[in-house]
Amino acid sequence: MSAHAHDHVEDHHDDHGHHHKETFVTKYIFSQDHKMISKQYLITGLFMGIIGIAMSLLFRFQLAWPDKQFTFYEVFLGKWGEDGIMDPSVYLALVTIHGTIMVFFVLTAGLSGTFSNLLIPLQIGARDMASGFLNMISYWLFFLSSVIMVLSLFVEAGPASAGWTIYPPLSALPQAIPGSGTGMTLWLVSMAIFIASSLLGSLNYIVTVINLRTKGMSMTRLPLTIWAFFITAVIGVVSFPVLLSAALLLIMDRSFGTSFFLSDIYIAGEVLHNQGGSPVLFEHLFWFLGHPEVYIVLLPALGITSEIIATNSRKPIFGYRAMVASILAIAFLSTIVWGHHMFISGMNPFLGSVFTFTTLLIAIPSAVKAFNYITTLWKGNLQLNPAMLFSIGLVSTFITGGLTGILLGDSALDINVHDTYFVVAHFHLVMGISALYGLFAGVYHWFPKMFESRMMNKNLGYVHFWITAIGAYGVFFPMHFIGMAGLPRRYYTNTEFPYFDDLTDVNVVITFFALFSAAGQVVFLYNFIHSIFYGKKGPQNPWNSNTMEWTAPIKHIHGNWDGPIPHVYRWAYDYSKLNKDETDYVVPGQDYVPQTLPLQDNEEELNH
Amino acid sequence: MTAFLVVLVIILFGVAVMQMGKIFQLSKPKSDPNSEVANDKDNNINGWLMIMFVLFIYVLSIICFWKWGNVMLPESASEHGIGIDQLWLYSMILIFVVGIITQWLLHYFAFKYRGRKGQRATFYADNDKLEFIWTIIPVIVLAGLIIYGLFTWTDIMNIEEDEDTLVVELYAYQFDWRARYAGADNTLGEANVRLIEGVNILGVDTSDPNSQDDVIVNELHLPVGRQVLFKMRSQDVLHSAYMPHFRAQMNCVPGMITQFAFTPTKTTLEMRESEEMIDKVNRINAIRTEKSKELIAQGDEALESYVFDYLLLCNKICGNNHYNMQMKIVVETEEEYEAWIAQQATLAKSLQQ
Questions:
Q1: CATH, domain range A37-262+273-551
Q2: How many structural domains compose chain B?
Q3: Predicted TM-score of the model (pTM)
Q4: Residues 6+ apart with CB under 8 A from A203
Q5: A-chain residues near B204 (CB < 8 A)
Q6: ipTM
């Protein structure tokens, strides 16, 4: 019955292109084709990334030279940068929006949105997503939320500035900070729409992976990219609705006089009527999403890395089943560790013990992943393409950032470094930089798939990687030290504390490295835009990869494959597999065996 | 702000196109379809760069420790802080050992197995024994850390009060702190923000007999060697009472009372005279003198010379002046403390005035 229905769908798709003329609008704007939607996600994400990174440069200037005046503050910040002096309120706005944009708009939508859309149908052998229409809606909701977030920068009292975690009462009361007026309203509206977009996307990914795999593509033959995207979508569906409820309750507290998060407040000379709510409740709701969010950002990057490291090492990924198991373990644990953001929030200390326990457990699957990556490199024949460099870079920052997580996850140690720059350094390395590396790796690797065989320039790619790698460590390694010196984050300046005067030169060094890395991103942007139009055309399967997307025709067609969808006969990692006599590779002279190639007479069947 | 986006986009894209045009010229595409795929030369260069990069990470760590090792917090000035510092040290040693080894393996393999034409990769898909080993080792090590951490945490957070414990309320509001001492009865009077009126800025219930001898001050004095139990309140938004030298921190939450306790072990004077602190203060004053010269040249006032004092900082974003919400902490001998507190006016007295 189901097989019958499946054939029917295929037939429909096969002649789809013949009797529909695509117009400009249906092809480039309101496209339902997953390949186009993935490009839309990527370009929107990169655009938001430019804004987010530019903001970080502005506040890095302020932190390094708090008593200097810079005319460009006035150019960029207008009335908040008069005479070249940055206003404290806009400093807080910059860090808030930088965080929001980078976490949600770049690393959630830009990374997972782009590559889930591009790769899920192509790597499992499907014509498109389960619902092309919902997929289109998902992108346009994301676009709308991006527009609202950007518009919120221009409101009279300034954008949201209560930190990206928007803890009430600060975010609930315009009397407390100017950004909690219209700016905060727009932030909440934008995020509510973003969550709707993310949910539509995630449900689509889940249904597609479960239902639309081609014949022979069992779950244990899925490339690790798909496993990562699939589980990421599941975590998203579990946790994003909780953030939506937190946002809705906050909207009610702000606009309709409820007291979910507010109690006993005296501000601006008067007592508020609110009674009985608790900000700690908001923290629970926020971090119930907020922590899984870290893995929503990171897992796709790890999936991409697994695929790229195996392909470019010309070796199977080491311990495929262990990799899948650790993705599952990380996903499960990620939903029960949120309290480690709240050790000193006033939460019962016993809960702190429980969350320390679960948090440190998550280091185990993470360690397994790191060891497996390293073993995959061992005795390989590494093709050091830019995507491969970024993948190795990811493993490096993932290890460094992950290790400091062992300190922060320990409730006793967290007491003294909580909310200091030590935390900032930790999470930027482990989720910010690592996930960005995953994004870059993915862009370099699948650029030919996205832009019909055009390739990005490799030398510019190398320049981009090495600048970024040096810059990222240069920014975040020294940052641990100012954290260990006890310097709180989100301080507009620390000149009010002579005790911190000796940290100024560390801040200057960090800012120099930040500027250096940002310059590297300009190289990337140039390479990206230039290659879209003038990139050299490469072969159909430039990296000699096993996965199915490279069997699809170069020219994008709606439905992905001309004619029937190929079947799958093996897992995705038969790189450098030898024949029975070990005289040559399974396919003579070719060190890879595409998933679509049936089992050969001269090879052994292995169960992975 | 209006110009922000427009200018941003124009500049970034403009610079991108112009500057990179030059770089791109240097890497002219060749006619080979595989010209953008790494060849042996690329593998070789980047392999060597990988080795240099891992050395860069090591050198960076060494430089950071050498140059900035002395900016870190001095030895803990509280009893429980010693435990935290010890756990911190052990964990640090552990993560450095693991970090140095794994980073080396990662980059060294990237160098050693860099691709060459004709080199055959080893088909090595899994090994249950290896997987078991590197699952079980983290399990054992982390179990140790978890148990050690939990004992430390429980010791700190399970507060055992005795008769000697000094009860102090820390009261946070935008953007300052107040401390309320419980007075002779060592019991704080009830309080609620709804009772804030005039000089009664903490909203203390004046009809509560316990509140009569409460003392409200804006400088925290603590007797050395005596446990202090802090009861924290906030008047408006979340704040966090952070006392880094005592390894102490707790959020102040409107609508609830949070608590943290510690025993200070070093007086302010002792801390000032420690070698580490003398060094640090000298360094800071050298920087300040340097800065003062600049300021004087511009016709401004010189900076005051710095003397060390313990600090209470706000460590939870709380508004525009979050960066300057501080209170001085003085740790002194029991006698000095008694003399100081005797001079302060009780609530009953200040309300009469």
A1: 1.20.210.10
A2: 1
A3: 0.92
A4: A134, A233, A237
A5: none
A6: 0.92
